[in-house]
Amino acid sequence: MLIGLLGGTGTEGKGLALRFAASGAEVVIGSRSRERALAAADECNGRLGTRLIHGTTNEEMIAGTQTVFLTVPFEQAVAAVSAYHGSFRSGTILVDATVPVRFVDGLPTYAQPEAGSGAELVARHVPPGVSVVGAFKEIPAHVLAEVETPLDCDVLICGDSREARETVMAAASLIPSLRPLEAGPLRMASVIEHMTVLAIYLNRRYRRKGARFRVQGV
Amino acid sequence: MLIGLLGGTGTEGKGLALRFAASGAEVVIGSRSRERALAAADECNGRLGTRLIHGTTNEEMIAGTQTVFLTVPFEQAVAAVSAYHGSFRSGTILVDATVPVRFVDGLPTYAQPEAGSGAELVARHVPPGVSVVGAFKEIPAHVLAEVETPLDCDVLICGDSREARETVMAAASLIPSLRPLEAGPLRMASVIEHMTVLAIYLNRRYRRKGARFRVQGV
Question: What ipTM was assigned to the predicted interfaces of this complex?
Answer without folding.
Answer: 0.96
